[in-house]
Amino acid sequence: MYLAKVKSPEQSKEPWDYLEIIKTVKGEDAFRPVSESKCPLLKK
């Protein structure tokens, strides 16, 4: 998962160039463990 910032029009160099990646976030830091989930689909 990535933490990204939207670029200003002046910072963009191509038509598709609209994000600046700030940081890569590990999955275990971005999401809670399945054991702590309250989702009923995971309880089956």
TrEMBL record:
Superkingdom: Bacteria
Name under which the protein is recorded: Substrate-binding protein
